Amino acid sequence: MLVDEFPPELVTRFEELVARRAERIPLQHLTGRAHFAGLELAVGPGVFVPRPETELLVEWGLSQVRAGIAVDLCSGSGAIACAVARTIPVVYAVERDPDALPWLRRNTQNTSVTVVPGDATDPSTLADLDGTVDLLLTNPPYVPTTEALPPEVIDHDPAVALFGGEDGLSVIRPLLVRAAGLLRTGGSFGMEHDDQHGESVPALMAASGDWEAVTAHRDLAGRPRFVTAVRR
Ligand SMILES: C[S@@+](CC[C@H](N)C(=O)[O-])C[C@H]1O[C@@H](n2cnc3c(N)ncnc32)[C@H](O)[C@@H]1O
């Protein structure tokens, strides 16, 4: 619709939002919404804002598996779980942060996703599913603590969602072990990682003996971004 002028209260509201954005508050926190793989998710303080590069991980996962059991470890807002649940109805979403869980519950409330509060690296989490999972996707915290981040990220994404210790691998290492425990032989695995991990993460996986077809993938900017594999 074309209009000649905006109502003054709308202009004031718009100017307020622009001023807050100039303070480096993420746009998604101002609107309360994030768009991911065609979904609109509720986000705000306490939860990681899903990023477009993670859509590539989902795309890869659904190109491999379209039925059975899927698991999203480190689920945050539930972006991966909700996107996968449009195709695979049995999806479990594991998240440990009590501040993120209300967002995850809200985003999954009209879906078939089962929310599982807990530590994704703990062998007791989803232990009933050991050896049965067909697709496991994860976007864990992976930023090295030494890395400088823009204010939108460091001041607004939760630290537990971002940092993976000094080398960025402190969650990834035990998560790889847990993923291998959950997946059935031949099950598909995809994990996002830092752009510095394009060689180290595939090497870790190759060394474990748990995986075959370990493949490194780049994001839309051409940076190393995620790894995929098949459970041996
Ligand atoms: C990078 S965010 C990703 C969120 C979401 N999967 C996405 O792609 O937008 C990582 C998430 O993992 C959660 N997390 C960190 N360590 C965890 C652990 N050991 N077990 C379960 N969740 C964890 C954080 O709270 C955060 O929500």
TrEMBL record:
Domain of life, per lineage: Bacteria
Tagged with keyword Methyltransferase: yes
Name of the protein in its database record: peptide chain release factor N(5)-glutamine methyltransferase
Pfam families: MTS (PF05175), PrmC_N (PF17827)
Enzyme class: transferase
Methyltransferase small domain location: 54-143
InterPro entries linked to this entry: DNA_methylase_N6_adenine_CS, HemK-like, N5-glutamine_MTase, PrmC_N, RF_methyltr_PrmC, SAM-dependent_MTases_sf, Small_mtfrase_dom
Enzyme Commission number: 2.1.1.297
One GO term (biological process): methylation
Keywords of the record: Methyltransferase, S-adenosyl-L-methionine, Transferase
Release factor glutamine methyltransferase N-terminal domain mapped to chain residues: 4-32
PANTHER family xref list: HEMK METHYLTRANSFERASE, MTRF1L RELEASE FACTOR GLUTAMINE METHYLTRANSFERASE
SUPFAM superfamilies referenced in this protein's UniProt entry, alphabetically: S-adenosyl-L-methionine-dependent methyltransferases
Keyword Amino-acid biosynthesis assigned: no
GO molecular function annotations of the record: nucleic acid binding; peptide chain release factor N(5)-glutamine methyltransferase activity
Chemical reaction(s) catalysed: L-glutaminyl-[peptide chain release factor] + S-adenosyl-L-methionine = N(5)-methyl-L-glutaminyl-[peptide chain release factor] + S-adenosyl-L-homocysteine + H(+)
